[in-house]
Amino acid sequence: MGFLATAESIAEEFRLPVSSAFETDFGTALGRSGQVVSALAHYQKALALEREQIGKALIHEHIARVYFAQSNGAMSLQHAVRD
Predict the structure, then answer these.
(1) Is the pTM of this model over 0.85?
(2) Running DSSP on this structure, what letter comes out for residue 52?
(3) 35 with 29: CB under 8 angstroms?
(4) Could you tell me the CATH number of the domain that includes residue 13?
(5) Spatial CA neighbour of 78 closest among 65, 66, 64, 68
(6) Does 83 score more than 60 pLDDT?
(7) How many domains does one find in the chain?
(8) Can you give the residue range of the structural domain that contains 36?
(9) Is the separation of the CB atoms in 12 and 22 below 8 Å?
(10) What is the pLDDT of residue 1?
(11) Which candidate, 75, 13, 15, 12, places its Cα nearest to that of 44?
């Protein structure tokens, strides 16, 4: 995750745009390391950046999986059935 944090820092410092894929990957890495709040924040950034509906659906799937892993079935289901 150090690499992703460094890349994010450089992008912020030099005002470089990041993609929804970057935010999704960062969210996935954070989620797998147990940093759920940070993971969800990156997924929300990814949703804001993503323009395609299929891309948004895939990000919602990632969010649903994080909530499911946290035994939060209601929130997991809410994101799993997004249109």
Answers:
(1) yes
(2) S
(3) no
(4) 1.25.40.10
(5) 64
(6) no
(7) 1
(8) 2-80
(9) no
(10) 76
(11) 75
Q: What do you get for the CA distance between the two ends of the chain, in Å?
A: 31
Q: How many CB atoms lie within 10 A of CB 52?
A: 9
pLDDT digit string (tens) for 6-62?
A: 999 999 999 999 999 999 999 999 999 999 999 999 999 999 999 999 999 999 999
- CA distances in angstroms from 37 to 21, 33, 34, listed in the order given: 18, 11, 9
CA–CA separation, 19 and 70 (whole Å): 27
Identify which has the larger pLDDT, 83 or 23.
23
| Cα gap 55→33, rounded to integer Å | 23
The residue to which tokens 């948004």 are assigned: 56
